[in-house]
Write a structure and sequence with these properties.
This protein is mostly helical. The chain has a domain of about 45 residues. Helix content is about 85%, strand content about 0%. It has three helices and no strands.
C-alpha cells in the first residue's frame, strides 16, 4: 500500500516538474523582477523598526474596510431582482394555497 502511495506521489511530482519546466521561460523573468523590486524596497525600508510595518498594515486594513463598504461587490440588476421577487411571491402563494386545501 505504501509503495502505491509513493508511486502516485512520484508521478504527481513528475507532472508538476514537467509543467514547471514548460513555463520556466515565462516564470523566470517574473521571479527575477520580484527579487529585484523586493531588494530595492528592503534597502530603503527600515529593517529593525517594526512600527513602520505595523502602520502600513493598519493603513491597508482600514483602506480595505472603506473600499469594501463603498463597493460591496456585484449587485444584481434591477430587472433580475424584480424577477426573483416575483418568482418568490408566486412560490409563496402556491404553498399557501396547497396548505389551505
Amino acid at each position: 500500500m505504501f509503495f502505491l502511495l509513493f508511486d502516485a506521489l512520484q508521478n504527481f511530482v513528475n507532472v508538476m516538474g514537467g509543467i514547471m519546466l514548460f513555463f520556466f521561460p515565462f516564470l523566470s523573468p517574473i521571479g527575477a523582477f520580484m527579487v529585484a523590486w523586493i531588494s530595492a524596497v528592503l534597502s530603503v525600508a527600515p529593517q529593525f523598526n517594526i512600527a513602520f510595518y505595523i502602520v502600513i498594515c493598519v493603513i491597508l486594513v482600514i483602506a480595505g474596510i472603506f473600499i469594501n463598504s463603498y463597493w460591496p461587490g456585484d449587485k444584481p440588476l434591477a430587472e433580475e431582482s424584480k424577477y426573483d421577487e416575483d418568482l418568490l411571491e408566486e412560490q409563496s402563494t402556491d404553498t399557501f394555497e396547497e396548505e389551505g386545501e
